Amino acid sequence: MDDIVGIVLAAGKGTRMKSARPKVLHPLLGRPMAEYALRAVEEATGRKPVVVIGHQADAVRQGLGPDRAEYVVQDPPLGTGDAVRRTRPYLADRARVVLVTNGDMPLLRAETLRALLAAHAAHDGPITLLTVFADDPRGFGRIVRDEQGRVQAIVEEAHATPEQKAIRELNVGVYAFDADWLWPALERLPLSPKGEYYLTDTVALAVAQGREVRAVPLDDPTEAIGVNTRVHLAEAAAVLQQRIVRRWMLAGVTFIDPRRVYVEDTVTLGQDTVVWPDTYLLGDTHIGPECELGPNTYIRDTQVGARCRVFASVLEQAVVEDEVDIGPYGHLRKGAHLARGVHMGNFGEVKNSYLGPGVKMGHFSYIGDATIEADVNIGAGTITCNYDGERKHPTYIGRGAFIGSDTMLVAPLRIGEGARTGAGAVVTKDVPAYTLAVGVPARVIRRLPRPQSSDET
Ligand code: UD1
Ligand code: MG
User: What is the per-residue pLDDT for 333?
Assistant: First the structure.
């Protein structure tokens, strides 16, 4: 028997998001919103959570990942009490304690859930719940206590008297239950005036049996931010962003202005890297140590090595090795791979291409579908003409070649090792190693001296 199992409620419609997308799949700093709740539950319980889905169930299952959790479908949605009841066939024999939380509370931390579970273990009552003290009740249920301060009931806002509405202690919607008490109690829940079964009504049931219900107030009220509207989504994102940036600062990353960056939860950064303002780091992006990023830089799904400098540039689905210098105004697109020590200056674009160690591409160039060996110099304004209107063609440039300014490389094309092209050449035929080609269309006009070490013919 598993000791503690976590249930994440996510069957609700999320009507107030005004969205075709299920609420719990709305992206939040690089992950679907519910992923944060799943992680917290998994960390606190040590096992995969059970997720109750209903509205757009298939989309939610796919969006979170079919193997990410165990899914239980609740259809129609008859309230939070009914949602938990649906998990009984899966959990009845498995769990001693049931932890319940919500898919739309991305800020709740695993530590807080652990504290709730510890508080639950410390008393005999069947329920322990999280509460928050707040001046803005946000439609949350109110915690009713008696004169001795004992929890008596949770009253939903819609059914609260004016005095109850004035209560500042609110139900977060996160609970630990003794499983053998919970399952029969759920069968006895009254139908609410709204036609739903409220999980919150378990509190009054326990109290009526003379059992204790304990409330654990949150230390940090921001953890209780539940997302019902896009306004709440932005509030949650702001808090989460602060946490992410703080985590990296404590790990040795400098942010020149921590409020003016966007760093998704999926991103990693190396020690002594410096991030300038207006830098956006997204998705599967991993930055090495001692880099300098920004200002004005956007990096998505890209690996960057150590000691790189990226200034005012856009990098997408690229790989950048150590000591590479990019920008201002560089654009790496899908499949760009810059080896160690590449220098890529102003207004360069690289797509689906390998630039070998030490390649220099200083100004105004487009390199697409190319393999460029080490130490090649790409003159200002060089273009790989890789597209003939129907198909893409490859370009190969051998080690140490020197491509003159404004060369058009009409692919498919091979430029041999140590070859040179003259300024303004339009190269339509392969250029042999250690020759100079010039003109329009370019023709070889002279052989060049070969170094002793050359092995290319
Ligand atoms: C609920 C609590 C309220 C608490 C608030 C905190 C009840 C009756 N009320 O209210 O005391 O202050 O949460 O956020 O529980 N869900 C299902 N199936 C359903 C209904 C809801 O899975 O049939 C899920 C929703 O997707 C959501 C969670 O349960 O993740 C809470 O439901 P919601 O409708 O938001 O409840 P609230 O009215 O906010
Ligand atoms: Mg809610």
Answer: 98
Between CA 417 and CA 374 the distance in angstroms is: 10
Same domain, 128 and 58: yes
Q: How far away, in angstroms, is 60 Cα from ligand 2 center? A: 17
Q: Which two tokens stand for residue 417?
A: 């090792």
Using the predicted structure, report yes or no on whether residue 92 has a pLDDT greater than 90.
no
Q: Token digits for 426? A: 């339009």
**Could you tell me the two tokens for 435?**
């020759």
Q: What number does the ligand 1 atom closest to the CA of 23 have?
A: 26
pLDDT value at position 93? 81
> Tell me, what's the pLDDT at 455?
63
Looking at the CA of 197, which ligand is closest? 1
Instruction: Say if 55 falls within a structural domain.
Output: yes
Which of the ligands is closest to the CA of residue 84? 1
- Domain end, chosen from 224, 243, 261, is at 224
pLDDT per residue as tens digits for the range 425-442: 999 999 999 999 999 999
The yes-or-no verdict on residue 456 having pLDDT over 70 is no
Position 229 in a domain = no
Domain total of the chain: 2
Residues with CB under 5 A from ligand 2 (ion): 226
Q: Is 81 in the pocket of ligand 1 (CB under 6 A)?
A: no
Active site residue 363: yes
Residue 59 CB coordination number (10 Å) = 15
